[in-house]
Amino acid sequence: MSQYTLFDKVWDLHKVADLPGGSSQIFIGLHLIHEVTSPQAFGALKDKNLNVKFPSRTVATVDHIVPTDNQNRPFKDILAEQMIDTLEKNCADHKIRFFNIGSGSQGIVHVVAPELGLTQPGMTIACGDSHTSTHGAFGSIAFGIGTSQVRDVLASQTLAMNKLKVRKIFCENKLTDGVYAKDLVLHIINQLGVKAGVGYAYEFTGPAISELSMEERMTICNMSIEGGARCGYINPDETTFKYIKEKKCSPKNQNWHLSVNWWKSLVSEENAIYDDEIIIDAAKVEPTVTWGITPGQSVGINQKIPELNDLSKEDQFIAGEAYEYMGFNPGQEIKNTPIDVCFIGSCTNGRISDLRVASKIVKGNRVAPHIKAFVVPGSEKVAKEAINEGLDQIFKKAGFQWREPGCSMCLAMNPDKLKGNQISASSSNRNFKGRQGSPNGRTLLMSPAMVAAAAISGKVCDVRDFLKK
Amino acid sequence: MTGDFFAPQGKIKIIKGRCISLIGDDIDTDRIIPARFLKCVTFDSLGSAVFEDDRKDLKGKHPFDLRINKNSSILIVNSNFGCGSSREHAPQALLRWGIRAIIGESFAEIFYSNCVAIGIPCFTMDKISINTIQEKSEKGLIFDIDISEAEARATDCKFKLEIKSSSRNMFLSGEWDATSTLLQNIGLIEEKIKQLPYVKLNDDFSK
């Protein structure tokens, strides 16, 4: 059993009671909601004749279903309109803060909460979305929940949970040029497997992690869930404090100093005990691309798609399914795979630093003729910042479409979808069968820089070749 | 699919039903219920859409379309079942199709807790036993699952199941429907919020 880790400290602080069945009742410091997984929870509250216990601890935005081309209301899609309308009503009825389209703060929930300063170290954070793990980048314990649990948080601000084990993932050395947080996390998931994290919280640490910006850290923690870990976190440090300072909802004045002192006390102790520890050499990570139907099925850009015999027996069944679905042959190179659609966005890689990196690759180039390429800023704030910096112009000039904020083609609950068996280069987080809106659509996950490079060359290529130019 | 839908309620001790085998590792919740079906404000219509794309692809040969599996209620799966998206729509779709218990090699974490929260017990077993049960299911296998004993009994065989003790206790006592249990500690909850440093130290949080 882990001891003296940040996870242990935050867990203990938030424990309300031991429940009769043997699980713990945990207080949730920040509850984020959106239109897809909350309506049934509000419905259940109504059925049970219950109220929202602490409305100020819940914050809402709309992201999954919003169209990214025309956001005028009512939405063309009647079901999408019904969902946003329901969320508006529920927030108004229960006095919940709602960052709606046009508020200046709407966007993907995991982009919005950090940029408002709502996400802070030492909090427990829950949201009806598996990528809630993103917020662990700040040293909070953040995890996805289902709709019945959303109901429980609304009603009681608590959840019944079993404590997770803690695995320390020490990332030694540093990432090399042209290799990004996305590559590192894809590499980690490939090394550990997509189910290794079940029952664990992942603590990412080491020099390669310390060096990352907050936005890069969010990319890492965001994908913890793709490795099976419901929660991933990074100990807070000066980079964290600097990011939070002066944000709209962050502590100010004397409270700021007291908060920073408290945050520092949460960091995992030197003598902390972990349930498991592993070491990853960040210097060996290459630009990484998925070739299959799970985020663990990835290779370095210069590697070949593995043969069945290269894989462990447990991984062979799903590899067989992946070859067939993707139409790839074992031993084939991933480099030069032709692409149809390029998507830059999502809660994994739709932040301003992602757009900056991608725009540098794009600048002065043209999107290959057969490619549909589009950029979807993660939030209204990201969009505004990008426009102020002229990034939208760089993308548009190169032939990218510039869209309004939302989840877009990460999960295609909106008009942005693959068609037929199109293949996408995508900065999102999941390459599951059918994930991007077409039942036989195919997804190659990679960093935003790699997506930008693929858009220009029309096929999967090594972004480092662009950086040399 | 069964006709009228009855949601699980109260204490869950015994689940009796026909087994339906679904082979494959890492079956994610996008496959169980594709995202386009999430455009809804109730779960009511999800049952018929379960595994929609996989079923279309297999043109009637998907386990959820085979006549022998009609009215089955115990799903037998392999490893990391329910990975990916946290959508409760996935277990809700299975529940509305008729699934009342799942036995597998392993489950993804959020899917597992969603199942507990809506009254679907999930049990684990080693790979070899799962494979044996999957083979038997294809010929027709009816189980009596005794949650208290963590045992699945058929006419000619029985299997030991594993279930987290906290989950087992919750099903047996009815506390899987957690809201009322959580609200019993309302006094402690109100005390807790007053103790949290980030609540005390942040006047701007609710701006």
Q: Describe it for me?
A:
The complex is a heterodimer of chains A (about 475) and B (about 210). With about 475 residues, chain A is of the alpha/beta class. Chain A folds into two domains: about 5-265, Aconitase, domain 3 (2-Layer Sandwich), CATH 3.30.499.10; about 290-469, 2-Layer Sandwich (Aconitase, domain 3). Chain A is about 35% helix and about 15% strand. Chain A has 17 helices and 19 strands. In chain A, α6 runs parallel beside α8, α13 (about 350-360) packs across α15 and α13 (about 350-360) runs parallel beside α16 (about 450-455). The longest helix of chain A is centred in the N-terminal third of the chain and has 17 residues, at about 80-95. The model of chain B has no long low-confidence stretch (mean pLDDT about 95). Chain B has one domain (about 15-175): Alpha-Beta Barrel (Aconitase, domain 4). Chain B is about 35% helix and about 15% strand. Chain B is built from nine helices and seven strands, in the order βααβαβαβαβββαααα. In chain B, strands 4-3-2-1-5-6-7 form a seven-stranded mixed β-sheet. The termini of chain B are far apart. Chain B is of the alpha/beta class and about 210 residues long. Chain B is globular, with a radius of gyration of 19 Å.
* CATH-defined superfamily of the largest domain in chain A: Aconitase, domain 3
- Let me know the average pLDDT of chain B: 95
What gap, in angstroms, lies between the N and C termini of chain B?
A: 49 Å
What is the tally of helical segments of chain B?
A: 9
**So what's the overall shape of chain A?**
globular
Strand order of the largest sheet of chain B: 4-3-2-1-5-6-7
CATH-derived architecture of chain B: Alpha-Beta Barrel
CATH topology of the largest domain in chain A: Aconitase, domain 3
Could you tell me how far the N terminus lies from the C terminus of chain A, measured between alpha carbons in angstroms?
Answer: 51 Å
Task: Domain count of chain B, please report it.
Answer: 1
Largest sheet report of chain A? 5 strands, parallel
CATH homologous group name of chain B? Aconitase, domain 4
Helix and strand succession of chain B? EHHEHEHEHEEEHHHH
What is the helix content of chain A? 25-40%
Structural class of chain B: alpha/beta
Low-confidence stretches of chain B: none
Helix content of chain B: 25-40%
Mean pLDDT of chain A: 97
**Mind telling me the CATH class of the largest domain in chain A?**
Alpha Beta
Count of helical regions of chain A:
17
Per the principal axes of the C-alpha atoms, what is the gross shape of chain B?
globular
